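Hi team,

As requested, here is the filled-out complex form for the FNR run. I kept the field names the same as last time so the parser does not choke. Let me know if anything looks off before we queue the next batch.

— J.
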Amino acid sequence: MLTPAQAPAIEDLYRIYKKRVPRVFHDYCETGSYTTSTFIENTKAFQNYHLRQRVAVNIDNRSTESTMLGEKVAMPVALAPIGSAGMNHADGEILACRAAQKFGVPYTLSTMSVCSIEEVAAHVERPFWFQLYVMRDRDFTRRMIARAKAAKCSALVLTLDLQVLGQRHLDLKNGMSSPPKMTLANIANMMTKPRWALGMLGTKNRTFGNIQGHVAGVVNMEELAEWTNHQFDQTLDWSSIDFIRKEWGGKLILKGINDVEDAKIAAKKGADAIIVSNHGGRQLDGAPATINMLGPIVDAVGKNADVWIDSGIRTGIDVMRALALGAKGTMVGRAYVYGLGAAGEAGVTRALEILRSELDITMALCGERLIKNIGRHNLLDAPAKSR
Ligand code: FNR
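And here is what came back:
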């Protein structure tokens, strides 16, 4: 259990996370690609959007409840897919999914998760969303979609911004892989994290659970790493979306859109929602902060598709800013990973409590009672072109 006094804000969860999780995984999470300019810009840019402070409005009986994909949510914040989340805490994906479901927000399991889709489905009560990376091995992709259907996943999140990997220098220096290279430095550092190490010793989930055992000829870790590195499909184009849509047949969310032209095509493809995302600053270094692209994208396609946003959200105030610009939903990545590494399921719950409480109070101070009433009128300045 983490009390509000122990962790009043997401940054407090981060401080505990940093102490408890081995450096190799901390660095994997807490960085961006190349110069990390987009990673840094993502969080900073939110502060350029000023909220209008309104007073003497009856703000009794407020609610942060809303809907995402037509389903009721405790607040319009879903947990983003995080590869290797289960290396931050033993059985991390199961714990994060449980926390999300008990709280009443959607959870997205990554293709590159540690706990497999079947393992998570067996340990949680309700359907979750599955995030797909399209692999060159289209048979594997087909089977992955079939597995998501068999696990009763309620939506497919197709990530489009990772056909090649943006280099993260720290991962190269640290020998990051799942599991990481057992360099002397990594072993020495892990020995200083006994709570983490004990947890890991107690679980069998320590590699890419969705992949190992599901690809012919890939038996050991070296073969798995080699296979994964060459599998992200560089031929993926908009026509591939039709193939995925046909195979899946259910609700489809397109993730990784950060440009108005792409948003228009994505909406035409009939996506149920699109996520304005730059992968948390981990892919195109130099890409704009997503909050700066949100307004133009909502203006271009908001009538045809639900527009959501992630990348850089660390507070409920940021969620309010995104909703004010027209987002119908948000996703958080690192904000919940910090909680997961800090205290497992209780840590993720705490992260969600923090975000909800901040959103609730911010709504109140802006004079809003309902999520559906939030809009551009809550912002002091109309988004300027230069942003
Ligand atoms: C990610 N992200 C990601 N996205 C995805 O579609 N599949 C994945 O496997 C991963 N893996 C992953 C690992 C880690 C450690 C991070 C930090 C991020 C991107 C993620 O879903 C989301 O877009 C960002 O995390 C949002 O930015 P914030 O909230 O972390 O700033």
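Two things worth flagging: Strands lie at 66-68, 71-73, 77-79, 108-109, 129-132, 155-159, 252-257, 273-276, 306-309, 329-332. Residues 4-378 form a domain with the TIM Barrel fold (CATH 3.20.20.70).

Thanks,
J.
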